[in-house]
Amino acid sequence: MAWETRERGGRYYTRSRRSLEDGRILREYVGTGPFAEIVAQSDRTGRELAEAERQQERDRHGQELERLEALVAPVLELDHAAEVLARAELLAAGYHRHKGEWRRARGEASAHPNSA
Amino acid sequence: MPEAKPVHTPIALELSEDARARIAELRALSEKVEAGDKEARKELRRLVRASSPEVIGRASDIGRRAGRVLAYTAAGGDPLTEEALYAKLDAMRMEIAGENPTPLEVLLTERVVSLWMFTALLEVLMSAQYQKRLSNGAERSSPSSRSSRSSPSYIIQQSRILDSATRRYLAAIRELARVRKLQAGAPPVQVNTQVNVLAG
User: Which of B30, B50, B82, B102 has the most crowded CB, counting CB atoms within 10 A?
Assistant: First the structure.
């Protein structure tokens, strides 16, 4: 969307739009004078409205994601706690990890830590 | 997405500072044990005996409550769906934990169940977004349809969260199976069986 100044003088309002037929960008020459001013103003308002809508959508999505994060926070805390506790229990019971696989350490007592 | 309301009475959905401190301590000691510190293993045994059951109990409780809050949200205000989801969570708990579960098994079961509920909730939210896009597909250019449609970046963000939740859910199942196997004293080695067929 722009005002163009021609060599012979005068400002012309032009705008671009995507062709509905083949998707190419087409430049449309609107003209000059009061009519072009009105069209330019209308385009500017349209762009501002669209930007406001996008901003509203971003805000709404941001809020939804925040709400989702708040909902899942306890689950993630449980996930972390369970991981730490399971690992601690297994290590305390005499297991160790070897290349990602849990094995009982040689010479370790087999008693469960909570049974001792 | 409806607001998450407290279930029955206001509840704390996070671990206490004390429980968090104990978990941090258990984690630090576990790291020392894995680094080969034998004294740390003795200390870890003492700490597991002393504080683990209580922390496990608290974490399990939070998991159970968090599962209910997620179920409430996924139900979208429909009381029948809400009750059905609560019943589903209870049935899953019973089925996964089995008979006489240890406290650790109860905790790992809560983890599996609440992560399942979380993935289910995400799937509900995502399918609602896709549904909205499909129903607005015919009127792509109208401003009202544009504003009610979610942007692709939002959908991508949601699918990443779903992906991460699914990975956690599968890891939780694996962890429960591993703990059960090890606690049952099953040998962690591959057993090769040989069958000799005698002729005659």
Answer: B30
